[in-house]
Write a structure and sequence with these properties.
290 residues, nine-stranded parallel β-sheet, globular, single chain, TIM Barrel, alpha/beta
Length: 290
């Protein structure tokens, strides 16, 4: 299959990457990280999460982060919102785009957001309604699209059902996450074939963790199947507090390097991203993953 000429990398490091860090990260560092990524050429930099500080202490400074960043023209700074209270706070912080989380696994849904898959859609409905009233786009995440730490393999039909519900509810884009990084290209193909029957490829994004070193292969497969949006995290930051054993997200610099080698344009400066990976890694006291 043909590869696209252009792909968008949706940078999730400041939110999905940092939320799993136990050490304190200063608000000023988070703001500089976001601004560096925007200046490197990313058009979407997921900034923070409007969750309870008790649930995710690292994101307790969400309002301060949103108030502190110098918003660059042409760049969107999405935020995650788990409930109406979070949505109200996000609106107050002048969020441009919000995201909601669902899962293809009942076990993971209960661990991650403390409700069943069906209950999660009841919870998200008022968020989406509030967003539509204020003309704010909503992105939907689906976790555990290949495997779950509690249930094992996940049926492609289960992923398609959740993705379809999010799409019908009004999400402009559905990000498909291999939360524990177990997917093989064969499994990913089966999953994408099922999902693409109910959600068009141009409304899908890929979100892979690199636990077993297959993230780039899976991303290339998705590109060949017509998907052009890839979630990635600078320096490979992240994991998931509710997915034991999951390693970080695939590194943005690794994805960029592969795309540029394939002749796929991104509009992003790889050298700047590599410098940014060094910057945040130095604050975390470790080397970048890529």
């Amino acid at each position: 299959m043909m590869l696209p000429k252009y792909a968008q990398i949706y940078e999730v490091g400041p939110r999905d990457g940092l939320q799993n860090e136990s050490q304190y990260i200063a608000t000023s560092v988070k703001i500089e990280l976001i601004e560096r990524l925007a200046n490197a050429g990313f058009t979407h930099v997921e900034a923070t999460s409007f969750v309870s500080p008790k649930a995710v202490p690292q994101m307790a400074d969400h309002a301060e982060v949103m108030a502190g960043i110098k918003r660059k023209k042409g760049v969107v700074y999405p935020v995650l919102v788990p409930n109406v209270r979070g949505m109200e706070a996000a609106l107050k912080a002048k969020a441009q785009t919000v995201a909601v989380f669902a899962a293809a696994s009942e076990g993971f849904s209960l661990k991650n957001i403390n409700c069943s898959i069906k209950e999660s859609f009841v919870r998200f409905a008022p968020i989406i309604q509030m967003a539509q009233k204020t003309n704010i786009p909503v992105r939907g995440y689906v976790s555990c699209v290949v495997g779950c730490p509690y249930e094992g393999d996940i049926a492609p039909s289960a992923v398609a059902k959740v993705a379809s519900e999010l799409f019908k509810a009004g999400c402009y884009e559905i990000s498909l996450g291999d939360t524990i990084g177990v997917g093989t290209p064969e499994q990913v193909r089966s999953m994408l074939e099922a999902v693409m029957k109910v959600v068009p490829a141009e409304r899908l994004a890929l979100h892979f963790h690199d636990t077993h070193g297959r993230a780039l292969d899976n991303i290339r497969l998705g590109l060949e199947m017509g998907i052009q949006v890839i979630d990635a995290s600078v320096a490979g930051l992240g994991g998931c507090p509710y997915a034991p054993g999951a390693s970080g997200n695939v590194a943005s610099e690794a994805v960029l390097s592969m795309l540029h080698e394939l002749g796929i344009e991104t509009g992003i400066d790889l050298a700047d991203v590599t410098d940014t990976a060094r910057f945040i890694s130095s604050h975390l006291g470790r080397l970048p993953s890529a």
